[in-house]
Amino acid sequence: MKQKGTRDILFDEMKIWQYVEENIRKICKEYNINEIRTPLFEATELYARGVGDETDIVNKEMYTFNDKGGRSITLRPELTAGVVRAYIENGLASTMSPLKLWYVGNMYRYEKMQKGRYREFAQFGMELFGSNSYLADVETICVSYELFKRLGLQDKVELSLNSIGCDKCRKEYIEKLREYVKPRLNNMCDNCKTRYEKNPMRILDCKEECCKKELENVPMITDYLCDECKSDFENVCKLLDEISIPYVVDKKIVRGLDYYNKTVYEYTAKDLGLAAGGGGRYDKLVEVLGGNSTPAVGFGLGMDRIIILLKEYGLCNNLTSNVDVYFAIIDDKAYAKAIEIVTKLRSLGIVVEYDICKRSFKSQLKYADKLNANFVCIIGEDELKNDECIIKKMSDGSQQTVKLDEKDIFESIK
Ligand code: AMP
């Protein structure tokens, strides 16, 4: 039996995935972003260090096990840490800077299931290494926004932005935050009590109602930004205004992972209450994982959520992939010739099927109908003798006889 939180994606839905992935590939090519594939499992330690041991992901959601060699292994719960490890281990810093990478891949989190929340799910992500300019933040936003735009989802998802500052400005802020939270801590959840000690900013991300209530008037990091963080954030906003990418500033966004700094952002499908993606700058992570200090920024968009949005809003209704021509073969001796022509037509980009069950002519036509074939090419004994075939147009039933040759067939089905 299928495991909880996993799904079989069958062919009708796969068409939507292919459509989204085609758009991703196209956009990434245009933006000169390089594809990267990293392993499905990594050493557990990578995530403890790279995601943060106070995060829900590391604390509660990882699929961790010991392999037969006694190593602690984790199925990737996100991909940034793995990409950063690959960046360091393969010396990618010396290949090009800035360097832009993208991926689509499955990840695994042991989560409570809801609509659009699975234990195996996929993200499209981008990581950009080697630029500390706000221009890099904007470049990643352009790429993610472009995908929503090409899929017709730009008005359905809202981009929210915030800055969570750097170590410098956080010092003062965290003091203020602790001051505010301390007298309220007794009314807050156990996780927040631990966060208060270890990583107080994560308290802002708590979803528990009791904590949300206590945090109603919490001081915001945006009021404590240092000059550099402040001007970076203003520049991001200004440039987005100028290039007409709509956004709202949401001071509550801190992101669920530990490694972010400065600009952070999220995409939310407001009407459906679904988070569609998130991203931000993570200038410390490369160093934390053993590389040279390298500024970086990236995002991860939920593929499964994007598919849900496309379905909900009816933006993927025309993705039927028809068969261009079905070869109905009535004479056994015609197979060799038919296969030769079919192979040539396929190499010209024509979608072709032929009978591989030796069915009756009637059943072959029925099957062609099921396949939504636009044309049927009929080869019987007489046609084979005359080196001809009959091309039948399925929409109106009209027929013509053409030479049994890929060029003539190609012309007649155009
Ligand atoms: P995160 O890596 O947690 O920042 O998530 C980035 C995006 O991935 C989210 O906004 C969702 O769209 C998607 N996502 C995260 N967790 C899940 C999940 N369990 N199932 C499906 N999509 C998810």
Walk me through this protein's architecture.
By secondary structure, this protein is an alpha+beta fold. The protein has three domains: 11-165 and 226-312, BirA Bifunctional Protein, domain 2, CATH 3.30.930.10; 167-219, no CATH class; 325-413, 3-Layer(aba) Sandwich (Rossmann fold), CATH 3.40.50. It has 15 helices and 16 strands. The protein has helices at residues 11-30, 44-50, 56-61, 80-89, 134-150, 167-181, 190-198, 209-214, 227-242, 285-288, 303-312, 335-347, 361-370, 381-385, 406-412; strands spanning 34-35, 41-43, 63-66, 72-75, 99-108, 120-129, 158-163, 248-249, 261-269, 274-281, 296-302, 325-329, 352-354, 375-379, 388-393, 399-403. The protein has an eight-stranded mixed sheet with strand order 1-5-6-11-10-9-7-8. A five-stranded mixed sheet has the order 13-12-14-15-16, with helices on both faces. A hairpin with a 4-residue loop joins β9 (261-269) and β10 (274-281). The model has no long low-confidence stretch (mean pLDDT 94). The structure holds adenosine monophosphate (AMP).
Keywords for this structure?
414 residues, alpha+beta, BirA Bifunctional Protein, domain 2, eight-stranded mixed sheet, five-stranded mixed sheet, 16 strands, binds adenosine monophosphate
Describe this structure in a few short sentences.
This protein is α+β, with helices and mostly antiparallel strands. The protein has 3 domains: 11-165 and 226-312, Bira Bifunctional Protein, Domain 2 (BirA Bifunctional Protein, domain 2, 2-Layer Sandwich); 167-219, no CATH class; 325-413, Rossmann fold, CATH 3.40.50. The protein has helices at residues 11-30, 44-50, 56-61, 80-89, 134-150, 167-181, 190-198, 209-214, 227-242, 285-288, 303-312, 335-347, 361-370, 381-385, 406-412; strands at residues 34-35, 41-43, 63-66, 72-75, 99-108, 120-129, 158-163, 248-249, 261-269, 274-281, 296-302, 325-329, 352-354, 375-379, 388-393, 399-403.
